[in-house]
Amino acid sequence: MIDLLGDSSLAQVNGLTITVTLGVVAISLALWTMVRPRNFPPGPKGLPIVGSLFSLDESLEKIFTGWIKQYGDIFGFKLGEHWMVVLNHQEIIKKALLKQSVQFAGRPRSPSGVYM
Predict the structure, then answer these.
(1) 3-state class (DSSP) for residue 70
(2) Confidence (pTM)
């Protein structure tokens, strides 16, 4: 049989197919990491995969104060692969821990929890 395309053309097509497939998978994964969980509080969008990690380059107090003004006393953001929820007032924290204790049970210890 006559080889009209040749081996090099076939290799280029296979290379292009692999490149496009990997690109679509990478973009899909990046977008999937940005989808907020259902009923998650509002907060900054962040970047794919790293979330709001690069937003935390200043003092946390200054950043959180800005986010509280923008999103309210309860807000959430993504830090790496973990979704974080920030509760700003003692009454909100008490209400959350007492009325929704099941949701908070079994959570990993956080550095801030040591000081409470």
Answers:
(1) helix
(2) 0.62
Amino acid of residue 49:
I
| Exposed/middle/buried for residue 28 (C-beta within 10 Å: 0-12, 13-18, 19+) | exposed
In one letter, which amino acid is 43? G
Tokens of residue 57, six digits: 């380059």
Query: Mean pLDDT by 10-residue block, N- to C-terminus, for the chain (116 residues)?
Result: 55 78 82 74 81 78 91 89 87 86 72 56
Q: How far is the C-alpha of 27 from the C-alpha of 20, rounded, in Å?
A: 11
